[in-house]
Amino acid sequence: MTTRKLKAATQLVHGGTARSAYGETSEALYLTQGFVYDSAEAAEARFKGEEPGFIYSRYANPTTEMFEKRMCLLEGAEDARATASGMAAVSAALMCQLQAGDHVVSARALFGSCRWVVEQLMPRYGIEVTFVDGRDLSAWEQAIRPNTRVLFLESPTNPTLEVVDIAAVAALSRQAGATLVVDNVFATPLWQRPLELGADVVAYSATKHIDGQGRCLGGIILSSKDWIDEHLHDYFRHTGPSMSPFNAWTLLKGLETLPLRVAQQTTSAGRIADILADEAKIARVIYPGRNDHPQAAICARQMQAGSTMVAFELKGGKAAAYALQNALEIIRISNNLGDAKSLITHPATTTHKNLSEDIRTELGIGPGLLRLSVGLEDVDDLIEDLSVALSKV
Ligand SMILES: *Cc1c(COP(=O)(O)O)cnc(C)c1O
């Protein structure tokens, strides 16, 4: 392989590939649990770490490692561990470095299961948590205590696409000697680079744009080699959130087309956001690529584009939101996102139904709010689908 510095699209086709002796074009799928050794001495050396090689696919696997290496090249990370789902990635990234008596500061607007991990699971193990409005830097600053070990956020947030100033929170984290973990799913690794903005650890649900074709669950944690060696290596080996090699193979194929898909979906999302913003039945449109986004200046600073998600609020509340969803013919009702297929969801009754009404109100998740994940269909067909459905509201 060349020693030249390659651009992302090239890395996503070639990066991390480990060809076998057969010289296959496509990445090989090593669907194996374990590995055999030529001798007892070789097994001993492998276990001692004196000889390179694989031991067991819960620890590492050649196909999974190709996926990890390709993601490291994309993210600019030194090391990574691929996981069975996005939630395995987020929960391992957080729990591997915490113990009883530690304190975590978390943005309050989180993907539903992430919020459960922070709010419900951590306190069971004696980890204290403070939730803050992620947009309010002084709230982050005031929440930090001497025992604060981890700061956690996602940006843009699900489902209201609020944006957190990652560089500013990273500066506070560094000052406090804490670790900043960023869930970067909504921005995708193409439009936002948390490690360059000062974050210590990035987690993804690879289920979303990285697969992007509705097939496999997956996740990944990326960071420095030191952080992974110190915190994640043993935790990962012994708790077993590992990604299946089959899923790693599928996700490697997903990475080859990631830039094309995400660019197209982003262009379509921007057009749809602009058209929805002019609709009389819609109270507000939230899209990080628009000038009227509440944190447009931060978006411009830390994101290369507005990404593939649009949130909008219907004036007619829940009845209007349901009528619109039920009248759509191409855009399907589903809580997934980042897919080739356009998907719409009503967060208040699906992904965020477990939150209390008060917390939903605090997060801006009203009864008329819909979250649209823009897919790869022709944008004109999507616009027509939305406008015909809106006319029936
Ligand atoms: C989907 C998602 C997750 C969880 O990922 P799974 O692959 O479904 O486990 C975590 N965070 C965000 C922001 C997500 O969108």
UniProtKB/TrEMBL annotation:
Its EC number is 2.5.1.-. It catalyses: O-succinyl-L-homoserine + hydrogen sulfide = L-homocysteine + succinate. Pathway: Amino-acid biosynthesis; L-methionine biosynthesis via de novo pathway; L-homocysteine from O-succinyl-L-homoserine: step 1/1. It holds the Pfam family Cys_Met_Meta_PP. The keyword Lyase applies. Its cofactor is pyridoxal 5'-phosphate. The modification N6-(pyridoxal phosphate)lysine is found at K208. InterPro entries: Cys/Met-Metab_PyrdxlP-dep_enz, O-succ-hSer_sulfhydrylase. Keywords: Amino-acid biosynthesis, Lyase, Methionine biosynthesis, Pyridoxal phosphate, Transferase. HAMAP family: MetZ. Homotetramer. Catalyzes the formation of L-homocysteine from O-succinyl-L-homoserine (OSHS) and hydrogen sulfide. NCBIfam families: O_suc_HS_sulf, PRK07504.1. Belongs to the trans-sulfuration enzymes family. MetZ subfamily. This is O-succinylhomoserine sulfhydrylase. The lineage of its organism: Bacteria, Pseudomonadati, Pseudomonadota, Alphaproteobacteria, Hyphomicrobiales.
